[in-house]
Amino acid sequence: MKFDYQAYDRHGAKHNGAIDASSLEDAKKQLKQQNLTVVKLQETLANNRSKASGPIKPLTLKELEIMTSELALLLESGVRIDRGLDILAKGSESNLGRVMSQLASAVRKGDSLSSAMSNLKGFDHVYVSLVKMAEESGNLPLVFGQLAKELKFKCELKAKIIQSLTYPAVILFVCVACILFVFNFIVPRMSGLFEQATELPVYTEMLLGLSAWMQSYQIYLLIGVIGCVFFTLHLANTGQLKSWVSRVFSQTPGLKSSILLVNRIQVSSSMAMLLTSGVKLDQALKLACDGITWIELQNSLNAARSKVSGGESLTLALSNTELYSDLSLSLIEVGEESGELARVFDEVAHRSRADFESWTSKLTSILEPLMILVMGGIVGGVVVVMLLSITSLNDVAI
């Protein structure tokens, strides 16, 4: 059972929150053990209890960013972690509220926040490790602030990519709709004009044949498209899609650099936060490489970590991978010598983000007119063939 309470501590500070207990007396006992004087204690209403019920799904990137940002703000304001989680649980809906309730319940039972997060899906190894180090050092507000900035950047980048791809997607949809309309309604009506023709131009026969094929098999095409969509969603849920995309992109000359850039941002930002939090170099490198989906790159970085554990310098170990440019390696070497590795990795991540944003802007600026040209060429080609077929009637022997 869950109970809402209002209480005061020994310093007269007011506390509002919720607590899990088997009974009202058990709730009073738990609050007394926390040195709180209870003023109001009642069972949580059904609509509040429903937030903590139901299946818990992995947090989305946006939900994780919201949770981290708000928790950072509450902790910086001096709110205790259990109360902060209760506040977020009450103010959040659906899945996020259930996750917050689960974390709050675990913390009140004596579990550490990092331990509670490790038992839930949606918190990666880097996130949990940083929270664990912050708990040990007492820097939870600082670490949550750093994580919030990193997650905010990822959300903004994701939103920017989706926004830039929306226009080409609309053009593609309109183009497909136009082609389906032409092949299902316009061309069939035109076919009556050619019924008595003894010989037709090749392009006219191709147009009529394609229209007939489309009408006969478009239902199967639709089923195939729907099947591909569901299969893609399944791969995305299992994480296989990201791995497959990384593998394909890494083998494509024009896109390999972008995959390296994305992984450089991920590794560098994780290394900066982990080293700042006091994680050892080899352990930080291991955690930073866990989220890489490009298998070849992950293997080379794991080999670099083994060399670092064996006493080799980080710069020399990373020089055998494709991840960092010569300039970045020079900066890392300086960071090793000066003891400012965390600062150097943060700078490399910052520069890589700027480079990736520039690359994304250039790609979308090229993609939009290219999509218009391709789709316009397809639709225009169909229209031209239709017009040529009509004008060729004068030359067709009847």
Number of domains: 2
Under CATH, the topology of the largest domain can be stated as Receptor-associated Protein
**SS class:** mainly alpha
Q: Count the helices. How many?
A: 16
User: What is the second-level CATH architecture of the largest domain?
Assistant: Up-down Bundle
- Shape, please? flat
The first-to-last residue Cα distance is 87 Å
Largest sheet: 3 strands, antiparallel
Task: State the CATH superfamily name of the largest domain.
Answer: Type II secretion system (T2SS), domain F
Features:
mainly alpha, Receptor-associated Protein, 16 helices, about 75% helix, 3 strands, 2 domains, flat, about 400 residues, three-stranded antiparallel beta sheet
Detailed description of the structure:
The structure is a single chain. The chain has 16 helices and three strands. It is mostly helical and 398 residues long. It folds into two domains: 1-44; 157-398, Type II secretion system (T2SS), domain F (Receptor-associated Protein). Strands 2-1-3 form a three-stranded antiparallel sheet. It is flat. It starts with a strand and ends in a 7-residue tail after the last helix.
